[in-house]
Request: fold
Amino acid sequence: MKRVLTTALIASFLATTASYAHESCAHGKTLTPDVLTIATGNPAYFPWVIDNDPTTGEGFEAAVAYEVAKRMGFEKDAVEWTTATFDQSIQPGSKEFDLNLQQFSITEEREKVVDFSEPYYSAAMAVLVRQPTVDAGATGEMESLKSLKWGVMGTSTALKVVSEVIAPSDTPLLYDDNVNVIEAMKANQIDAAIFDLPTALYLSAVVLEDGALIGQFPADRSENPDQFGFLMEEGSALKSCVDEALAAMKSDGTLAAIESQWLAETTGVPVLK
Reply:
């Protein structure tokens, strides 16, 4: 009995110690004491956030955020959500959030002015068009893609993919955000655009009445896959805490399970040739 009790006490001690280690990592490092402020976009799209409400924890990024927060010592009621535009967030200077996740690709240029966590997702890139473009003969063959009129968010990593990998005949049109890219497609100003695969699936199924995906560039077939990370103010003391939480989630399979739950539909799109 004494031995069983001792074993139970040791297990309890180890669990408490692990919890304390996470809490002590983030203690005193947040904007608001004992509160973790997380930003996302407005709107935040499926499947990253369900129904534009990250507080439910539903959607891939919302679920990842709460799991990271928990492993840093913040229960759900200690997480406060806010919104910030994509362009505002990647600018240098102080931030009004502790962490921000809205499919920020980790790039060397951005890392000069902000901090990123280790990646929480490696994204395939998908080509989005409208059905009339497919009916007119557009396919996933590279020569066909080159002939299309492209629109790209100027600050996104999609610009490099379009310009260097596809290299279309006409210079891509640049827009300040993805909302305007979609509006340009609706207005027949452009034929095609590139988004991360889950976002492209949502846009084709929900936002565009006649959206279609004609192919993807898989992350695992790229020398430099588009990887998403939590964005933080440059020099953030929370970076090591977030990286530690993500490493543990990868090690114990939690991150893969969340990805499977919320991004399982990102299949069935043909590979671009």
Remarks:
- The chain is about 40% helix and 15% strand.
- The longest strand covers residues 211-217.
